[in-house]
Amino acid sequence: MTRENKAEPGLSDKAEECGEVACLRPQRLGAGQDPAKRKQILEGARRVFMRMGFDAASVNDITREAGVSKGTIYVYFNGKEELFEALCEDYRASMFADLMADIEHGLSGRDALVKFGVSLVTLITSEPVIRAQRIVIGVADRMPEVGARFYERGPKRGKALLKEFLDEQVAAGHLDIPDTELAAHQLSELFLAGIYRQRLFAAMPEEPSAELIRKNVIAAVDLFFIAYGPRRYQNGKSEDK
Amino acid sequence: MTRENKAEPGLSDKAEECGEVACLRPQRLGAGQDPAKRKQILEGARRVFMRMGFDAASVNDITREAGVSKGTIYVYFNGKEELFEALCEDYRASMFADLMADIEHGLSGRDALVKFGVSLVTLITSEPVIRAQRIVIGVADRMPEVGARFYERGPKRGKALLKEFLDEQVAAGHLDIPDTELAAHQLSELFLAGIYRQRLFAAMPEEPSAELIRKNVIAAVDLFFIAYGPRRYQNGKSEDK
DNA sequence: CTATTCTCGAACCAATCGGTTCGATCCCTC
DNA sequence: GAGGGATCGAACCGATTGGTTCGAGAATAG
């Protein structure tokens, strides 16, 4: 019934090389092989999941939102869970790309950290990303692999990125950090202090203001530089006891 | 959902205006007034919700687990949501009590902080508490009040407790902190760095070992003392720009 | 004892769930 | 134009959902 789904008449068919092995089929794409239709389904699913969460969303809702018949969905995906997993995959990639795109600058150490922190906090406390995290956390009991992959592609890569940066700063003599991995953990949590968990639990209904974020990040960087700043920190002085 | 209006057929109508003030009913308890039965229902509901999450749990499951008929449940609670909210109320209280019970000591500053941190991290990254948090976060979109109250009674009170402690330490001259509220935020997030989010996302399937927790907490306290420790920190040197 | 009343347990409700099937139809390729 | 394959759309499936009703039976109070 004249949906917009047949946007691409017939081009774009061999866009995706048929997975990773040779696709022998000479004509057509084979059932469930049209990447445009796949994207269309995923986009509808994304909207529905974001609006209603995983359990409350029904396949019929997705059908309606995507403008695709239920039978077709089940040709492309083997059920709601697989659809959700595929969606997470896409989502993570784009989320991380957003962050990467936002930090390509050659700032000096302190400013670079602040800039990175502001981007990070702004992104992962934004409404859509918080909603996505709530959904993933909510199903983490039933689908731990999904949750774990989400963490690995998201927060873990963010921390790895931060560790790289810290390593560079240490090498350049701008920082003096005995354990950059630990430091990356600490700093990224400091960035989020007082914002992230409130947001997750819906105890902070609105997105945090840019001022709040900036104030938080600067406080974190200050604390961080006092501890790990150039000179002034002798490592051997570990805990008493 | 949304049909609570015709709940009472005609009997038991004066059961609930007893509320928290004097219940005038001289004999019997009135429908839905037996605290033991209420407790029994809540206990069954707790087990079911913990095992299956909010959406996946059905009232029939709770019926079965609690050993109570469905009709009775609907006498005590107006549906699954209300049952869940009541459950959260109980749960928060007991969780916080656990933490309080674990920190009544007169240790010196640094050791006291470590002890507090270990108790805190151990508690809120434990399997049952993590599961509870996942469930609450998962429904935070649909029931933001529940999530917000959970946060206020949990993390927020924990941070308030920590702030109190820091205030005492500052007064005693053991610490030099310009903003103890911010510092409490920072320290409590530092305690959890590298553990909490992994656990939430199921990226760390097992409860963290006591060694890991202790190592993390000590690192946090070290960092904290370097920044806020006695002397050696001149406050006026705030951030540039 | 009788009268009261709370709970049980099962039947019942309409709605919806995820998932399957199948003929009609559309579009592409030849 | 003809043939073939992918998609549509709707009916259909059994199971289950949150929620209601009601009579039988247990327990208590007078």
Describe the protein in words:
Two copies of one chain form a homodimer. The first copy, chain A, is mainly alpha-helical and 241 residues long. Chain A has two domains: 45 residues, Orthogonal Bundle (Arc Repressor Mutant, subunit A); 148 residues, Tetracycline Repressor, domain 2 (Orthogonal Bundle), CATH 1.10.357. Chain A contains ten helices and no strands. In chain A, helix 1 crosses helix 4 and helix 7 crosses helix 8. The N terminus and C terminus of chain A are likely disordered. At the A-B interface, helix 6, helix 7, helix 8, helix 9 and helix 10 of A face helix 6, helix 7, helix 8, helix 9 and helix 10 of B. Chain B binds a DNA duplex (30 and 30 nucleotides) through helix 3. Chains A, B: Keywords: DNA-binding, Transcription, Transcription regulation. Chains A, B: This is TetR family transcriptional regulator. Chains A, B: It holds the Pfam family TetR_C_7. Chains A, B: It comes from Phyllobacterium phragmitis.
